[in-house]
Amino acid sequence: MPRTADTGGGDDRGGHRGESRNGNRDEGRPGDRAEAHDGVRERETEGEQEHLDRVYRRLAEKIHEAEFLMADAARRAQVGTPGALAERDAQVFRAGVHLNRLNSEFEDFLFGRIDLLPGKDGKRGPDGAYTSVEPADDAVRPDGAGGAVADIAETLHIGRLGVLDADYTPLVIDWRAPAAAPFYRATPVAPGRVVRRRVIRSRGRRVLGVEDDLLRPELTARLDGGELAVVGDGALMAALGRTRGHAMRDIVASIQAEQDEVIRAPAASVTEVEGGPGTGKTAVALHRAAYLLYQDRRRYAGGILVVSPTPLLVSYTEGVLPSLGEEGQVVIRALGSLVEGAEAELHDEPSVARIKGSARMVKVLRKAARGALELPPPDGGEVPRQLRVVAFGRRVELDADGLRAVRERALGGTAPVNLLRPRARRLLLDALWERSGAGRRYTDPELAAEARQAFDEDVSTEPDFAAFLDAWWPELTPRRVLAAMADERRLGRWARRVLQSREVRRLARSLSRLDADGSGPLSVHDVALLDELRVLLGAPARPRVREVDPLDQLTGLEELTTHADRIAARPARRERAGDAGQDERTDYAHIIVDEAQDLTPMQWRMVGRRGRQATWTVVGDPAQSSWTDPEEAAAARDEALGTRPRRRFELTVNYRNPAEIAELSARVLALTMMGVRPPTAVRSTGLVPRFVVAGGEGGDDLGRVARAEAERLLAEVDGTVGVVVAMERREEARSWLAGLGDRVVPLGSLEAKGLEYDATLVVSPAEIADESPAGLRVLYVALTRATQRLTVLSGEKDLPDGEGVPDLLRE
Ligand SMILES: Nc1ncnc2c1ncn2[C@@H]1O[C@H](COP(=O)(O)OP(=O)(O)OP(=O)(O)O)[C@@H](O)[C@H]1O
Question: Which of the four pLDDT bands, split at 50, 70 and 90, describes residue 40?
């Protein structure tokens, strides 16, 4: 990667930078030069300020227009014809969305600019911009002195939304528009038409400064009669060096070429992205969601699901899309909250997680869903062993064998258990009729049919029959069945020849935290089991109750609600024990899976069900996987993603960790995945990781040293400090760090996934590594969270050397 001497760094596009581009840049006295540079910088900043002022004036006009449209639509609401209401609906929607976006307080509405040579074929698109990526053949001319000269033919400003002037000239191009792609893609090796790429730093309405990359440094380029100026010292480096807070920031001003290819990949196929820690996979996935919405809003609005591994990562990332102007259009869910009504945050211990995540559970759950009909009713009592009714004035009975035979017949096939209840009822009536012998008294089939109908009515209206049916074929909820698996003997029957008895014991014990009706805290892995059960049980058919506004009934227009009405009427997410997944959307148009390497086979099944028709973007890093059976997971992933063609991408540059931290974490990578190359770190800070050892012999002052080291890091960085400990020390770590303020975040190793902090303290690498079979990869995750500083604290188990370097991290 080229680096420029004046910046001490460079980005992976490697553009040339420097103040004022002219052939004499090294001449003159240093003081004069600095003054001249300041003058150029000021002039260029002012020029951008003027442009931004124009943009805001135009935005004010557009806001005024949108408000007028909203008011006009409200007036139309008083005209009661269906046509007027439909039009109002559409207009309110369009104007509302528009107004919302225009009013959004963007920190930097405008952030980029490219200055371009004329296009090859001279063709221009509808927005007046040249369409060709390549420059015209005669764009560059010899300057007569051995060099080359060219005129800038087009200047495009890039921002979060497109803005057209009143005469339709583009004032700002939406970052997702094709015309904006060269801003992200151009490199000095393949500059296309781009001569200068400028990142504009602004806050609200004020331009703070500009930073340029010159992509054709060999050219003397002219703009409006003057020479093209170049100022600044690296937008990417400035972005990477900034302090981290509790929310992820968008990267829209500095997306790199390899990332841009992923963001703009065609939606029709499955886009698979692999890349090491810090390569921007999460950032890219979120920008892709915004890009897809821009490409085809009609298809994707409300229909994109982003699946994230933890609630912490959801809250860390959920601000990115609103900052890109896509408020509320994309659903971001943690794996533990994917099923409506479940909000799981508990983590199972690795051996239990492994069982619950395994595809073998499908067989166990199939048995459980059917076997649960034998469960004693939750309100006490027993499953009825016989059925007695009175029909045609006589007693008819079915004994336990008779009932078992009926149940077996009813359960034939694979239909969901709750949906089989009407069939079971019919078969019961058949068996009772048969047992009553009444059929044999009729030779005339018509009379027999009539008698049978009368018999059925007689039996069905008996309250005892209804009560029997409720007890014998109860309506089962996923939570209730899951809770029933806490009984080891029962689970043993359901899991016969699938799980070993040791596994049965562990699984049953972990589910014993649920009450008999299934209420109680769920673990993240329980949720995929609930979802599987939801399908196996099926939602019982209920009569549809439609609430109709009486006023609407009068006009007969109840279907014509506005989009705003529908959004307002959407039920808030509720915690409903036993009611998982009833009114949840399960047909997303596009699903983005973050940290895909961690999904278990059962989780892939759960996610796959939500995207039967979807296109996919799947990002992950096998080296960070905490799942131990990659082959089983790969098969489930293939099934979820279906047969669509796949496009694979690799991200290779680490934007998070300085080289000093990346070098240390690479040692663990080498232990766990030999031969895998870590991504290249783009910057180096000169700050090597610090090694500390706790507690001499006993190691019991781990907490005291951890606190002291966290305090030290707090003093060294302005932003956040993550303290990563083994999962079983989570609670302890909270007490170690109590009172240090919210810049310090204690984390169990599995919770650290996807997050980043200015500084990280990793406590006892050996404890983290020993916690599970995938422990080394979990440790790799922990060691790759810091953007500036890393401290490693060893306990006794870590076998630190004289320098305090733990055994696992030695070269
Ligand atoms: N082009 C870019 N410009 C500026 N910052 C970037 C760029 N790409 C990535 N980053 C920053 O690098 C950091 C890492 O990005 P991100 O979390 O998306 O990486 P990741 O590949 O998902 O990492 P992990 O695998 O560790 O979860 C973030 O702070 C992100 O904003």
Answer: confident
Strand ranges for 381-436 from DSSP E:
387-391, 394-398
Do 761 and 710 contact (CB within 8 A), yes or no? yes
User: How much is the pLDDT for 584?
Assistant: 63
Q: Which residues pair with 526 in a beta bridge?
A: none
Q: Which of 809, 366, 773 is nearest to 605 (CA)?
A: 366
Q: Is the pLDDT of residue 559 over 60?
A: no
Q: From the annotation, which residues make up the binding site for ATP?
A: 275-282
| Ligand 1 neighbourhood includes 281 CB (under 6 angstroms) | yes
Q: What is the pLDDT of residues 672-683, one digit of tens each?
A: 888 889 999 988
**ipTM of this complex:** 0.99
* Per-position b or e across 604-633, b if 16+ CB within 10 A of its CB: bbbbbbbbeebbbbbbbbebbbbbbbeebb
Distance 262 CA to ligand 1 centre (A): 14
Integer Cα distance of 255 and 542 in angstroms = 50
Q: Is the pLDDT of residue 561 over 60?
A: no
Determine if ligand 1 sits within 6 Å of the CB of residue 255.
yes
pLDDT confidence bin for 8, thresholds 50/70/90: very low
Q: Which distant-in-sequence residues (6+ apart) come within 8 Å of 782 by Cβ?
A: 724, 749, 752, 760, 762, 765, 768
653 in Cβ contact with 12 (< 8 Å): yes
Residue ranges for the binding site?
275-282
- Distance in angstroms (rounded) separating the CA atoms of residues 803 and 800: 7
Ligand 1, atom 14: nearest CA belongs to which residue? 278
32: pLDDT confidence band, cut at 50, 70 and 90?
Answer: low
CA nearest to 685, candidates 299, 240, 264, 365: 240
Helix (H, G, I), strand (E, B) or coil at 566: helix
The whole-number pLDDT of residue 581 equals 42
pLDDT at 93 over 50: yes
Share of the chain above pLDDT 90, in %: 52
From 789, 717, 716, 727, select the one nearest 753 (Cα to Cα).
727
Token representation of residue 541: 């058919």
* CATH T-level topology, domain 659-809: Rossmann fold (3.40.50)
Spatial separation of the C-alpha atoms in residues 791 and 417, rounded to whole Å: 55
User: Which position has the higher pLDDT, 527 or 88?
Assistant: 527
Question: Would 259-347+586-652 and 659-809 be classified into the same CATH topology?
Answer: yes
Q: What is the pTM of this model?
A: 0.82
* CA of 255, closest atom in ligand 1: 1
Domain covering 259-347+586-652 in this structure, CATH number: 3.40.50.300
Test site for ligand 1: of 282, 308, 313, 595, most ligand atoms within 8 A of the Cβ: 282
Residue 239: beta bridge partners?
A: none
* Structure token digits, residue 291: 């890009």
Q: Which of 316, 655, 781 to mutate to test the pocket of ligand 1 (most atoms within 8 A of CB)?
A: 655
Burial class (CB in 10 A: 0-12, 13-18, 19+), 136: middle
Decide if 679 contacts 256 (C-beta within 8 A). Answer: no
How confident is the model over 591-612, as a mean pLDDT? 95
619 token code pair:
């990002």
Q: Is the shortest distance between the CB of 720 and ligand 1 below 6 Å?
A: no
Confidence of residue 232 (pLDDT cuts 50, 70, 90): low
User: Is the CB–ligand 1 distance for residue 259 below 6 Å?
Assistant: yes
Domain boundaries, the chain: 36-240, 259-347+586-652, 355-537, 659-809
Q: Whose CA is nearest to atom 24 of ligand 1?
A: 277
Helix, strand, coil percentages, rounded to 5, for the chain: 45, 15, 40
